[in-house]
Amino acid sequence: MSLRSFLFALGLGAGAMYLLDPDNGHRRQMLLRDKFVHLTHRGADWQKRLMGRVQWAGDRATGFAREATARMQDERVPDDVLVERVRAALGRATRHPGAIMTQAQQGRLILSGQVLADDLERVIATMRMVRGV
Fold first, then answer.
1. d(Cα 20, Cα 37) in Å, to the nearest integer?
2. Is the Cβ–Cβ distance between 86 and 100 less than 8 Å?
3. How buried is residue 93: exposed, middle or buried, by Cβ count under 10 Å (0-12/13-18/19+)?
4. Cβ distance 100 to 109 under 8 Å?
5. CA distances from 27 to 22, 35, 105, 120 (A)
6. DSSP letter assigned to residue 77
7. What local confidence, expressed as pLDDT, does residue 132 receive?
8. CA–CA dist 130, 90 (Å, integer)
9. In this structure, which of 10, 27, 83, 114 has its CB flanked by the most CB atoms within 10 Å?
């Protein structure tokens, strides 16, 4: 018998004695079972998080592709849709979007109101990026 086989058999015997002990063996078995169940639940949680991130990345890629396709097409946007797109973009471009009045007439965008000086360039750049403007 090789040393490796001997040590393996010795470890196997010690583990059996540890788990089959008449006084504490059942408690040890239950602790081992609880640890195993905990690890399987952690693995399932990890898998759910990973799949959620994969789904998010796929949705994001689909959105980018559809946005790029839409930008290449010359579309006429209804005025009310254009105003809503601009209002949404203004909320991300300036600290006071309520101070800017937004109108669209036959596809032309009209902005009026007051804008902070340090927000002006960002507002203009953002408006150029809105689809339909």
1. 20
2. no
3. buried
4. no
5. 10, 12, 77, 70
6. P
7. 79
8. 10
9. 83
